[in-house]
Every structure is written in structure tokens, then in C-alpha cells.
Write a structure and sequence with these properties.
Helices cover 25% and strands 21% of the residues. It is an alpha/beta fold and 420 residues long. The strands form 8 sheets. An 8-stranded parallel beta barrel has the order 3-5-11-12-15-16-19-20, surrounded by 6 helices. Strands 8-9-18-17 form a 4-stranded antiparallel sheet. Helix 8 crosses helix 10.
């Protein structure tokens, strides 16, 4: 059994990659380098170094940040979080090229058994600065490059506007990508913003990239405080802005992007890496079944720490043994053929309007565990009612077998049985 994969022309021992995490603390080279050494010991396939802005500012040995982080509750229960947001200026919160060069040099000298991938924010700064940053990174020993044009805070800036002699752009130019490829010779992955249309890219860009990474945090808006003066919840001041929203809620959106890109003719011969909402071990396998070559973890690190890597690798190996797969290529993309563009195309869901469909596979029934809390009677279902004795019963004529009553029942009183 072999979990090895090739990404951007680099051999990885497994498809799990640590995404270019922007640390929420202040950063100093020594502690930062030890942090990456700790990551390498988890057995991760590769490490993408924290993205940097190709502009020199600050100190080369320490990088300060200014941000506010808030968890976002689902609203379904205390401490049930669906995501979090970080509010703070990308510049200078994201480390500068000055700091990044020292960090990369230190990491590459200490970590020799795990590929180190560089990451540059390419929609910020003059084109020559971006290209020179990539050329200098290569000299330090990185094995590949991810060109990041998906930082949510930068995406909120006006396209092409200059402020303090700094240029902002929504996507990389052909000149940037071509020049970096020609000067470095390394494999390049283009990290796109969520929802970015591949058709918006210059078609010639695909000649110079080896991969696509989809996607990143979505740009969202935290709700206002419900206390006067009804401004920001962040606490630093009453003003706030659109910010990146990270976490488990992203996963299905990430999968949708992956499946669409995988079927795009422009992407047939390039590597696909996914990031966004991956928080469980099985999500690694799900991503591979949908055609991903590698999976970048970020949300999992914030919620579960780097110990997640070993558990995820173990889960992947168990999955392969269980299904007699010798390599990841044996099952990568195996689920794509089952994905249709519309539910109207799925024959098993078709039925005549005048009669009850007989193609649903299960129905629900109530057990003696029912406590009569009536939670199930207050939802969007006509199949549940209370009989003369006060017991909850299921009307089989109206039950579609959806199973939502089982989801919301606090005592597990509903069971699903399959129809023969």
C-alpha cells in the first residue's frame, strides 16, 4: 500500500499538506522555525510556508500583527461553532518578504525530509516585486510555489487602485506567472479565490502553471452588536469591515469548486489541491474521491491542532486497506462519474406527479424512547402527529423517509428502516 503522490512535480509521502497558515500571534524567527519543525514531525506530506507580501517593511527577525479573532456560532447550541473570522489589515499583518526570506532560509536548513513550498501574495504590489520575491525564494531551497491571489482582506481592496504606491489586483497577470515560471523552473499552483471563474484567466496562463488550489476563506460580514451603539462585535472600535470567514461551513462549497474545476477541460493535466473546511479525517478521503491530488489543512489545525495529521494519515491507510487499494491513484476521482449537473438528470428521483413515489428507500418509526417533548411536531413535516393517547406516531402515507426527525430528536427516539 502506497500513499505517495506527486504534486507540482514534487514527490510527497502522502497527500496531506499544511496550508500557508497566517499565525494569529506575533512572530519571531526562532519560534516560528521551531513551529515548522514541529509540523514536519507529524508526517505531513509537505509544508506551505506562511504567505508573504512582496514588499519590504518591518523587521527581518520579528513580525507584529494586529487582528481580532471571533468564533461564529451556528445558533443551534452553546459553543457549536461553524466558523471563525479574523479582522485585521493584510498589510502589514501578513509577513513581509524581508521576514519571509529569513524564515524560509532557516526552515529549509532545518527541515530536509519534508518538501517546503513557498507562498507569495501575487495580487498585491508591483509586478517586478512579485517576480523578484519568487526568484529569491528559489535560491533558499523551496521545492515549489503557490501564487496566492485569494487573501480575503486583499480581495476587498479596489482592483488596480494605488495607495501609498502599492498596487492591488484581483488576479495575477500573465506576465507575473510566465516570468516566475521561466525564472524559477519550479512547479506553480495558482490559489484562486472562492467563486473565481477560470474563464476570467488569460488562457495562456495555463501553459505556465502546474496546479490550481481551491479555494480559501470566503469574504463575509460579521453581524453588528445588538447593544448600543450597534457597531462592531470585535471590541477594538465600533467600526468594522468585510473579513475572511474560515471553518467547517466551507467544506461543501470547496467540494463544489473541486468537482467543477476537475471537469473543466483547461484543468485536465494539472494538479488540484483543495483547502477550506477540512476538519475530519474522512474529509481527506472525500476530497481524494472527488479528484483532489492533495488536501491542505487549515481549519483542522485551528480546531484540532497538528495532531490531526497523524490521525488523518492513519484513517487514509485504513480506508485503503479496507477497500484493497494499493495506491491513491486506484480511487482518486472515483466519485466524479456519479455527479450529475442537475437532480433532474437522476433517474431514480423521477416519478409521476399524480401518484406517491415508490422509489424512496426508507421510512421512519418511533420507539419507546420518545418522551413526548414534541420537538418533532414543530418542524416542517406533516407525517408526524399525536394520537389519542398522546403518543407521537408516523403517518406512513406522508412519510418520505427524509430522516430529519431523527436528526432533531434529543433522545434518539426515531429509527429509520429500509424498505425492501
Amino acid at each position: 500500500m502506497n500513499t505517495n503522490v506527486v504534486w507540482l512535480g514534487v514527490n510527497l509521502k502522502n497527500p496531506i499538506i499544511v496550508a500557508p497558515l497566517t499565525l494569529v500571534s506575533h512572530k519571531r524567527i526562532e519560534e516560528h522555525a521551531r513551529h515548522y519543525e514541529k509540523i514536519a514531525k507529524t508526517g505531513v506530506g509537505a509544508i506551505i510556508v506562511e504567505s508573504c507580501i512582496p514588499i519590504e517593511y518591518g523587521d527581518a527577525s520579528i513580525s507584529f500583527t494586529q487582528n481580532d479573532l471571533l468564533p461564529i456560532e451556528s445558533g443551534l447550541g452553546k459553543n457549536q461553532f461553524m466558523s471563525f473570522t479574523i479582522l485585521g489589515p493584510s498589510y502589514p499583518n501578513v509577513c513581509s518578504i524581508k521576514y519571509a526570506m529569513v524564515l524560509i532560509k532557516e526552515i529549509c536548513s532545518r527541515i530536509t525530509d519534508t518538501p517546503i513550498i513557498g507562498s507569495i501574495v501575487v495580487n498585491f504590489g508591483e509586478e517586478n516585486d512579485v517576480i523578484n520575491a519568487a526568484k529569491n525564494m528559489v535560491k533558499l531551497g523551496i521545492k515549489g510555489l503557490e501564487l496566492n491571489c485569494s487573501c480575503p482582506n486583499i480581495l476587498t481592496m479596489q482592483n488596480g487602485k494605488k495607495s501609498n504606491n502599492i498596487v492591488y489586483r484581483q488576479s495575477p497577470s500573465l506576465n507575473i506567472v510566465k516570468s516566475i515560471k521561466e525564472h524559477t523552473g519550479l512547479g506553480i499552483s495558482l490559489k484562486l479565490a472562492p467563486g473565481y471563474m477560470l474563464s476570467s484567466l488569460d488562457n495562456n496562463i495555463f501553459k505556465y502553471i502546474d496546479g490550481i488550489t481551491c479555494s480559501n476563506a470566503y469574504v463575509g460580514l460579521m453581524p453588528p452588536s445588538i447593544d448600543p451603539p450597534f457597531g462592531s462585535q470585535f471590541g477594538r472600535c465600533h467600526d468594522w469591515a468585510y473579513s475572511g470567514i474560515y471553518g467547517p461551513f466551507e467544506r461543501l462549497l470547496t467540494y463544489a469548486s473541486l468537482a467543477k474545476i476537475k471537469k473543466d477541460p483547461c484543468c485536465q493535466n494539472i494538479n488540484l489541491s483543495v483547502v477550506g473546511g477540512i476538519v475530519e479525517e474522512k474529509h481527506i478521503v472525500e476530497s481524494l474521491l472527488l479528484g483532489a491530488d492533495t488536501i491542505q489543512i487549515s481549519s483542522a489545525v485551528f480546531w484540532k491542532g497538528f495532531r490531526f495529521v497523524k490521525r488523518a494519515v492513519s484513517f487514509l491507510e485504513q480506508f485503503m486497506r479496507k477497500n484493497y487499494f494499493n495506491s491513491i491513484s486506484d480511487f482518486k476521482g472515483k466519485s466524479l462519474n456519479y455527479i450529475l449537473s442537475s437532480v433532474a438528470d437522476i433517474k431514480n428521483y423521477s416519478h409521476e406527479y399524480e401518484v406517491k413515489p415508490e422509489n424512496h428507500l426508507s421510512e421512519m418509526t418511533v420507539t419507546d424512547k420518545c418522551t413526548g417533548c414534541h420537538n418533532c411536531l414543530d418542524m416542517c413535516c406533516l407525517a408526524l402527529h399525536e394520537d389519542r393517547n398522546g403518543k407521537i406516531v408516523v403517518n406512513k402515507d406522508l412519510c418520505s423517509g427524509c430522516g430529519w426527525c431523527q436528526v432533531i430528536c434529543p433522545v434518539g427516539a426515531f429509527i429509520r428502516y429500509n424498505k425492501e
